Amino acid sequence: MRDEVRDALLAMLMDGRLAAGTSVSIDQLSRDLGVSQTPVREALVEIEATGLVHRVAHRGYQVAPPMTAQQAAELADARLVVETTAAQWATRLLDPELLPNLRAAHRAHEEAAGAVREWDGVTRDRNGLPIQLKPYFEADWRFHQTILDHCGNDFLRRMVGSLGASVQRMRQNVHRGPVDTELAVAEHGRVLAAVETGDPQAAADAMRAHIEAVRERSIADA
Hints:
70% of the residues lie in helices and 4% in strands. It is mainly α. The chain folds into two domains: 1-63, Arc Repressor Mutant, subunit A (Orthogonal Bundle); 69-221, GntR ligand-binding domain-like (Four Helix Bundle (Hemerythrin (Met), subunit A), Up-down Bundle), CATH 1.20.120. Strand 1 and strand 2 form a beta hairpin. The longest helix has 25 residues, at 69-93.
């Protein structure tokens, strides 16, 4: 039950139903989700560890405000440590399922980016962003998750749980839309090409270049 409630709350945080900087009503959420207040409280405690919500003394939980430029930079630094290592290890290990899965993830990312480029300029989500961005962001992270899933280290994978949520929080700041999607797809393509060579250092370098580029774009949007 708690896991289901947590996933529902995360979805609300990502699509703007729980807007940045607003108070969280446990009573209202329990009614909306049709559950008691206990699993809602437990889920919020778990989500607090990701930084998406925080507890304020005598006021309960609040949704975290959008990331500052400094926070976006620090997130990128953390991703550089974890994800360049994962790319290097995954390429060195070269699990037989890595390349087909990574190619499929890249194709899905390209298709999602194409949908963003075809945006009608009108339809927006609760955050005021093109409605196609949510599936695009999911496809984007799936590419990264695929590498992490094949890095051969369970501890490294677990470390990325809160990073993934923070990446989603960072994306609430995004203003670039189709421009950023084209850049990200091209950068992912270079990561894939490096992994295909079987050169661990080349894969790590390509991932580093991608995350550093994301860092610059994120700071500009913050």
